[in-house]
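DH domain-containing protein structure dump, as promised
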Amino acid sequence: TECDLEKGLEMRKWVLSGILATEEAYLSHLEALLLPLKPLKAAATTSQPVLTVAQIETIFFKVPELYEIHKEFYDGLLPRVQQWSHHQRVGDLFQKLASQLGVYRAFLDNYELAVETAEKCCQANSQFAEISE
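structure tokens r here:
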């Protein structure tokens, strides 16, 4: 019936709105992680580095890529949810997201080492400990 179609349409929009909100929060966390990246990289080439290039690459491994993947997903999903209709489709966005699972695998494979490295760097360098808070 027409009422069931409308309910289904509203339910899909509600679910996708929740996904959008989650993506927004995730992007904000990734942005917070990326904030110190440029200054740390710049300092790494000076005589007073906070972290070495290798430490930076280990700690922030795949974070910029994850940010780009999710930013693209969010930027694609937002206008579709805002202009919601029976004809609106979002499967292509989820397929593209799923095609990036290798980036997540690499991130997860490195995660334990990244955390260990960050902890060691915090203990050895009060400046990095302050930044990482």
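The chain has a mean pLDDT of 94.
lmk if u need the other ones
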